[in-house]
Amino acid sequence: MGHHKLGVVPSGVELGAAITLSAVVVKEARYKRLCKSKKILTVNGKFPGPTLHVHKGDTILVDVYNRGIYNITIHWHGVKQPRNPWSDGPEYITQCPIKPGHRFTEKVIFSEEEGTLWWHAHSDWSRATVHGAIVIHPKHGTSYPFPKPLGEVQLIFGEWWKADVMQVYRQFMASGGAPNISDAYTINGQPGVLYPCSKRDTYKLKVEYGKTYLLRLVSAAMNEILFFAIANHNLTVVGADASYTKRSTNDYVAIAPGQTLDCLLHTNQNPNHYYMAARAFTAGPIAFDNTTTTAILQYNGNYTPSSSPSFPSLPYYNDTSSAYNFIFSLRSLVSENHPVYVPIHLKKRLESTIAIKTFPCYPNGTCQGPNGTRLAASMNNISFAIPQRFDILEAYYYHINGVYKKNFPSFPPFVFNFTEDYPPLYLNTPKRGTEVKVLKYNSTVQMVLQGTNLVAGLDHPMHLHGFSFYVVGWGLGNFDKHNDTKNFNLVDPPFRNTAIVPRKGWIAVRFKASNPGVWFMHCHLDRHLTWGMDMAFIVKNGKSPQTSLLPPPPDMPPC
Ligand code: C2O
Ligand code: CU
């Protein structure tokens, strides 16, 4: 089927010239894990999929072929795609899906991102196996803000079900309850030695003694935040979500679905073999996959390895203080070459609750949610309904009525003690709707994301398409605009595309709406996304053609 290579465009070339074609072929392939073989959806037959290498500022064209049996879209997670939501990917938000047998040529426009991102399917739950890393190298002639490592490697975390993922998804949709938990986590597609039939294929990273390596961590897990550590070794975080951070040395990290972390690893321990391991961080009152995935760090050279590699100590599953100590310790690198632009004078203040909710069961149905209800989720009490016939971007661009409404509330419609132990039950049922928030071009926005304890208080990794935002504050309990604002970090806050809202707590994020388009925001735990913990922004055009949406590509998939 020709060469399915992901192409690299030399940077520094004029746009228009700086384009090469590469191809992504979505198709089924047979994979065996946990002693059981099944067909999974892949890109180019690979799981995880191929890594896309680019340089900062490149623009590339990718031909996405759907040779699978389901509708599909591909999202370039964390790529801001200035003025080009057409290739962003979320199904029925910015495009209709690519049908089996069809093709869509996507223009992926990189701008300020540098470091690690990833791409994934953005339709039903196919991203479980349809994903891969994006490595954004510094521009030619520039270098990392840290000494050049001897080697670089991606570590992609995933979640594996023995059953067909589409089956898991359908059953989940039909049951009204929580989805079946996964059977394993994976590192670069392999579960590791603690699972059946997995020992031989465990991922192994071979290193030289006394060097530095750059580990590019990507969490493609579906429904859990993970702790990760390497026995006897520290991880020095230098970047997160394709933005550099101040160096921060840790003996474990926490990473949520959607996030990436660039870490330096110093191979300064006795030459030996060591386990790396990841397992869930989850503090809520719900069932989760409590298994542990492993890989091996192995020093080259002549030595007698210990009979069994030593195992890292990971924080306990519900160790929120270890999780938050790590998560909220990250700071942006601030330097001449890496300035930060935290919005100070705000044009728009938004606050949204994020909540697990319930609907009454379908008429005559049986539902597995609490007390026979159907589980749901919401932002500002609206459980987002993904359109089914048109996508929002198309409806916006061509003025098609009836696809979405512009009434996403700027503040929580009900004010209560959001994080108390037993919030009033009548608040459990949300409205349903496709409500967007319209923002003026270049307005400076602050959004407070307030966790609630309705139905189940949990941590939520919230992701915004089209932007990264500065996480200027966080706290436990309810956000207090008078006192909490005083403590905001406007100097070196982390610049992320996915940030964890702590359980029964809040975060405040700021961004400048300088990217016209339709941009989805949602929890990156897929069960919550599916339940409606979502909303979308429409950022209007600026005054000039250079500050307006690009025209749609000629081959947008028809709805
Ligand atoms: Cu990683 Cu809406 O996506
Ligand atoms: Cu969530």
Automatic annotation (TrEMBL):
Top-level division of the source organism's lineage: Eukaryota
Cofactor(s) needed: Cu cation
GO biological process: lignin catabolic process
Keywords noted in UniProt: Apoplast, Copper, Glycoprotein, Lignin degradation, Metal-binding, Oxidoreductase, Repeat, Secreted
InterPro entries registered for this protein in UniProt: Cu-oxidase-like_N, Cu-oxidase_2nd, Cu-oxidase_C, Cu-oxidase_fam, Cu_oxidase_CS, Cu_oxidase_Cu_BS, Cupredoxin, CuRO_1_LCC
Catalytic activity: 4 hydroquinone + O2 = 4 benzosemiquinone + 2 H2O
Domain Plastocyanin-like: 26-139, 153-302, 428-542
GO CC list: apoplast
Similarity comment text for this entry: Belongs to the multicopper oxidase family.
Protein name (database record): Laccase
UniProt organism field: Ilex paraguariensis
